[in-house]
Write a structure and sequence with these properties.
Elements: H1 2-19, E1 26-30, E2 33-36, H2 37-53, E3 58-61, E4 73-81, H3 83-87, E5 94-101, E6 104-112, E7 117-122, E8 127-129, E9 132-133, E10 145-148, H4 157-169, E11 172-174, H5 179-187, E12 193-196, H6 201-213, E13 217-220, E14 233-236, H7 241-251
Parallel strand pairs: 3-4, 10-11, 10-12
Antiparallel strand pairs: 1-2, 4-5, 5-6, 6-7, 7-8, 8-9, 12-14, 13-14
Helix pairs in contact: 1-2, 4-7, 5-6
């Protein structure tokens, strides 16, 4: 399964690179949500590779309906995370492939094709970047790099208030427009906190496992245990997690 996930991620990444700057079609799925012909082509490649090896497995992907199977395993894939960056020629995008077994994520692969970075995590076995073990940072809140949900543009009061409160307590703020980029940066200690209110399971399932296996922590926005189906989440180095949860709870009026 590890080899299949890595092969699928790399081959999809090759499609993304080959078509970077040469997109043929861009469609608006809904306001602020795009899909290109490259998303679809990369997705088809991933599904073909997984189906060729594990035809009985379920597959859930961002651009397609769920492919039903007869198994306790489900692959959760995003062929192109960071589509807006990709469309604008910004080299912050990647491929995400996670494997769920009986409700829990047991394997995650993220591939960043522009930098040829392959991140891999297996439940209980640690997190790796190009074969080298990675760990989260140990920074406290005052030195932390906070990455925030770029959908703050939607203007929901608690989201704006949460950003204001956390920005005052942290060292720096960024918005990368890509969950896989942010979560991989947390796993290797380059960033320390990520708050995301708007996502699908394909956006963060692989990255969530990567962060946990690198020694970090995931929860829903309220500090409860996460699953691929939570509505919003906090990812952190673990050191700052409790304080971040407490701060956001105030922004919700709790």
């Amino acid at each position: 399964m590890e080899k299949t996930a890595i092969k699928a991620a790399k081959e999809a990444g090759r499609i993304l690179l080959d078509n970077f700057g040469r997109i043929k079609k861009v469609e608006v799925k809904k306001r602020g949500d795009l899909v290109t012909n490259v998303d679809v082509e990369a997705e088809e490649k991933i599904i073909k590779i997984i189906n060729g090896k594990y035809p009985e497995h379920f597959i859930l992907s961002e651009e397609s309906k769920e492919l039903k199977g007869n198994s306790d395993y489900r692959w959760i894939i995003d062929p192109l995370d960071g589509t807006h960056n990709y469309v604008r020629g910004i080299e912050i995008f990647g491929v995400s492939i996670a494997l769920e077994h009986k409700g829990g994520i047991i394997l995650g692969v993220i591939y960043m094709p522009c930098s040829d970075e392959l991140y891999f995590a297996e439940r209980g076995e640690g997190a790796y970047l190009n074969g080298e073990r990675i760990k989260v940072s140990r920074r406290g809140l005052s030195q932390a790099l906070l990455v925030y949900d770029s959908n703050i543009k939607l203007g929901k009061e608690h989201v704006v208030k949460g950003l204001d409160m956390l920005a005052r307590k942290t060292f720096a703020l960024r918005m990368f427009g890509s969950s896989v980029r942010t979560l991989s940066y947390i796993a290797e200690g380059k960033a320390d906190i990520f708050i995301d209110y708007h996502h699908g399971p394909w956006d963060f399932s692989a990255g969530a496992l990567l962060v946990e296996e690198a020694g970090g922590k995931l929860s829903d926005i309220y500090g409860n245990p996460w699953s691929p189906w939570v509505r919003g989440y906090i990812a952190s180095n673990g050191v700052v997690h409790e304080e971040v949860v407490k701060t956001l709870s105030i922004s919700f009026g709790k």
